[in-house]
Structures are given as structure tokens and as C-alpha cells.
Design brief:
Blueprint: H1 9-13, H2 21-24, E1 29-33, E2 36-39, E3 44-47, H3 50-53, H4 62-73, H5 86-100, E4 108-110, H6 116-131, E5 136-139, H7 148-151, H8 157-161, E6 170-173, H9 187-194, E7 205-208, E8 211-212, E9 218-219, H10 222-234, E10 238-242, E11 266-269, E12 282-285, H11 305-319, H12 323-345, E13 352-356, E14 359-363, H13 367-379, E15 382-383, E16 385-387, E17 393-396, H14 404-421
Parallel strand pairs: 3-15, 5-6, 5-7, 7-10, 10-11
Antiparallel strand pairs: 1-2, 2-3, 4-12, 8-9, 11-12, 13-14, 14-17, 16-17
Helix pairs in contact: 4-11, 5-11, 12-14, 13-14
This protein binds pyridoxal-5'-phosphate (PLP).
Residues 52, 115-117, 120, 143-145, 209, 213-214, 242, 244-245, 270 line the site of pyridoxal-5'-phosphate (PLP).
């Protein structure tokens, strides 16, 4: 594809240096539908990024768009703090009937501010309040958000350095498969917990992603997650699963921990819970942990009512009949087969792949190779980003609604990009 240089001048002169995605993808996007974005000159881009996981049902999904337009046209409430609204009631009832009850999950639902990090801050604050302890354990290469509490349990040194103040009360432990594969799981963690001389303050909670998205698509084994849940119970620590990126069906089941058969004490959801890409987040917890005083944690943008409308519509459309999970696993097998073939084609690159459901990563020994692949893929009309501590992993995060044909097209572009940069 030949792309005429887009007019990026206002971004380059007025927008802060902190901007990032518009540097990786120098285009000015104008429209989007399903798995494709179009720039202002009409060039199409296949999207294997899906709003960093906020667009699991694709761009401008017609079912959700209809519900949203109808709601706006009838002057439904847009802004409502945490007032009772018909949209909030409909969302809560649908969430209970379609998601919580069939999974036998007893959670209460809290609406923090609309971003992922808002949900994480609420979860950490609640855990500390319930247990009366300040320390939280997180894992190597974790990513939980950019506000200070979330950064304190995030691994990435570059992101942490941005805080400008000490990030305290978080202790990192090795994630699954971080060590040599020989050391028994949680050996170090449990030893520190039991040794009165270890220097580890007893944690209020442990926060974990079942698949680390930003950390490089590191997939925790179900048995590791089960052992973690048991350890938390034995040691009286709350287990928080941060399902902001891996929830809402990304790994197959609605919650990413379902396959492991664990029930976390607290769960955070955001990104695709709003369905349409509208900001919304949830903090879910066991009813006995609901020790909040009214208004003790609040925020002006908790009640994003248009997001409640599209969230409820997405749950009805995609989760009421149980088909989504099977479809995601089938699509995941298609991605896995393609990644296996690419790795076999280029043994010299020492690339490997890993993933679950529709989140996959291809790791290159040379991190620069991952960046080159993403750049070349963009030139061929495919949006892909990197992740991992050295940005050494090409991350594939297509919408769950991507057709097998579109998946195939994107995977062929990826194969071509690897071939052309090898
Ligand atoms: C697991 C996880 N937690 C928290 C966040 C932060 O979400 P937000 O960027 O909406 O604050 C992210 C964002 O990528 C995430 O992947």
C-alpha cells in the first residue's frame, strides 16, 4: 500500500511529547467498522490491537450502536454520578443474570471512576481497609495502571520512574515461570510469609493478572493460579484478579480465571466491559468485603450511562447463549497454527509464541526485530503493538468478533512482515 504522508503537524507541535500510539502508527484515522479502521485518505487498516482490549466486540458494533443511538435519541441520562438510573438498573440486572448467576459468583458491584486504574485503586484501597494492612504483593512484569497506587504494583521500570516519588507498600514476587522452571512455585513467597525475620510486612492482598498483557503475554498455568488462591487462603490474604485486559472473554470464558476454577475475593474489570469502547470500570468483591462507608470512595464519572447501555447490550448479544467462548477458542487455534508456522519458517530468529483464547504474543530474541515487524505490518495495513519489558513481544489482540477470513488476512500480513524483516 502506498500511503501519502499524512498531516500530523498539530499533533507534533501542540500535543505533548507523551503521545505514543500516534508515533507508532503515523496515520490520521477517521472511521472504523468491525475489525477495520480507515484513515482520512480512505486507506484501510486491519486492527489486531482492538483498543488495547477495549474493543472486544469490534469498532462501532452495529448491535451496540443501535442501542446507543436509541438511548441518546430518547434523551436517556448521560451523566449520573451514582444516581439510580434505568440504564444502571438494566446493566446491573443483566450482569447478574447473564454473567454472575450462571457462574455462581456472589459478587457485589462497585462503580469506581471509568478507567482501569480507577478500578485497581478501588480494589487496593478496599483490601487495605478490610485487612487493616498496607502491604500488597504483585508479580514480576505486572501492569496495573498509571496512577500511583497502581504503579506501585506495576513492574516496568520506565513506567515506575515516571512517578517521581517512592512507590511504596508493594512487594514483587516471581510470576509463573519467571525462575528456572525447577524451583517449586511460591517457595520464596511462602518462606518470607512464614519467617518472622524476613522483613516482609504481612500483605493485605495479592494482585495478579492470569495472562500478563503489557508484561509480554505471560500465561499463568491454571495449577499455578490454584496454588496462589490456596496460598492466599492459608495466609489470610485477599486475592485480587485484575481482569481489565483479559476479562470480557479475551481468553475464552467471560472471566479469565474461570478455567482455573478459582473464585478471587476481588476482581477488576474495565476496557471491554462497556462494549463499545466507552469508558467504564467495575470492582467486584465478595459481599462480606463490602465495608465501604457511603461516599468513602467516589468520583464524578462513575455513572457513564451510555456505557451501561452498550455494556448491557453486549452481554445480551454475546454472552447470553454461551457461544462466544467456543468461537474464541476456535479462532485462537487459528492464530496459534499461524504463529507456529511462522516460527518454523524462521528458526534463525529464535522466535517463540504463547497465548490463550484470542491473546497471543510472539517473542523475538532481538527486541528490535519485534519493532521492525510491527512497523512493516503497519506499512502493509495491519495494526499490531509490542509488549514485554524490552518491547520484545509482538502482541496480537484482535477483536473477538474478527471473522476467520480477516484473521487469516492479518496473519498472512504478519508472516510477510516477519519474512521481510528477518
Ligand atoms: C491488567 C491491566 N490493569 C490495569 C490497566 C489500566 O487501565 P487504564 O489504562 O484504563 O487505566 C491496564 C491497561 O492496559 C491493564 O492491562
Amino acid at each position: 500500500m502506498t500511503i501519502a504522508p499524512p498531516d500530523l503537524s498539530v499533533f507534533e507541535t501542540l500535543e505533548s511529547e507523551v503521545r505514543s500510539y500516534c508515533r507508532s502508527w503515523p496515520a490520521v484515522f477517521d472511521r472504523a467498522q468491525g475489525s477495520r479502521l480507515y484513515d482520512e485518505d480512505g486507506h484501510a487498516y486491519l486492527d489486531f490491537f482492538a483498543g488495547a482490549g477495549a474493543l472486544n466486540y469490534g469498532h462501532n458494533n452495529p448491535v451496540l450502536k443501535r442501542a446507543l443511538i436509541d438511548y441518546i435519541e430518547r434523551d436517556g441520562i448521560t451523566h449520573g454520578l451514582d444516581m439510580g438510573t434505568t440504564a444502571k438498573r438494566a446493566f446491573l440486572e443483566t450482569f447478574q443474570n447473564v454473567i454472575l448467576r450462571p457462574r455462581d459468583l456472589p459478587y457485589k458491584v462497585m462503580f469506581p471512576g471509568p478507567t482501569g486504574t480507577n478500578a485497581v485503586e478501588a480494589a487496593l484501597k478496599l483490601a487495605r481497609k478490610v485487612k487493616g494492612r498496607e502491604s500488597i504483593v504483585s508479580f514480576t512484569n505486572a501492569f496495573h495502571g498509571m496512577s500511583l497506587g497502581s504503579l506501585a504494583v506495576t513492574g516496568n521500570a520506565f513506567k515506575r520512574a515516571g512517578a517521581g516519588i517512592p512507590l511504596v507498600h508493594g512487594t514483587p514476587m516471581p510470576f509463573d515461570n519467571y525462575l528456572d522452571g525447577q524451583t517449586p512455585d511460591f517457595l520464596w513467597f511462602e518462606r518470607l510469609l512464614e519467617d518472622q525475620g524476613s522483613g516482609l510486612n504481612k500483605p493485605a492482598a495479592v494482585i495478579v493478572e492470569t495472562v500478563q498483557g503489557e508484561g509480554g503475554i505471560n500465561v499463568a498455568r491454571p495449577e499455578w493460579l490454584r496454588a496462589l488462591a490456596e496460598l492466599c487462603k492459608r495466609q489470610d490474604m485477599l486475592l485480587i484478579v485484575d481482569d481489565i485486559q483479559m476479562g470480557c472473554g479475551r481468553t475464552g470464558g467471560f472471566f479469565s480465571f474461570e478455567g482455573a476454577g478459582i473464585t478471587p475475593d476481588i476482581v477488576t474489570l474495565s476496557k471491554s466491559i462497556g462494549g463499545y469502547g466507552l469508558p467504564m470500570s467495575l470492582c467486584l468483591f465478595r459481599p462480606e468485603l463490602d465495608v465501604w462507608e457511603p461516599g468513602e470512595h467516589n468520583g464524578t464519572f462513575r455513572g457513564n450511562n451510555p456505557a451501561f447501555v452498550t455494556a448491557a447490550a453486549a452481554l445480551e448479544a454475546y454472552w447470553a447463549d454461551g457461544q462466544m467462548e467456543k468461537q474464541t477458542h476456535a479462532r485462537g487455534e487459528q492464530v496459534e497454527a499461524a504463529l507456529r508456522a511462522i516460527c518454523l519458517e524462521h528458526p534463525r530468529l529464535g522466535a517463540s509464541y504463547r497465548g490463550r483464547g484470542l491473546v497471543w504474543g510472539m517473542e523475538f530474541t532481538d527486541a528490535e526485530q519485534a519493532a521492525k515487524v510491527c512497523r512493516r505490518a503497519f506499512e502493509h495495513g495491519l495494526l499490531l503493538e509490542t509488549s514485554g519489558p524490552r518491547s520484545e513481544v509482538v502482541k496480537l489482540l484482535p477483536a473477538l468478533t474478527t471473522t476467520p477470513e480477516d484473521l487469516d488476512e492479518g496473519l498472512r500480513i504478519l508472516a510477510r512482515a516477519v519474512r521481510e524483516t528477518a
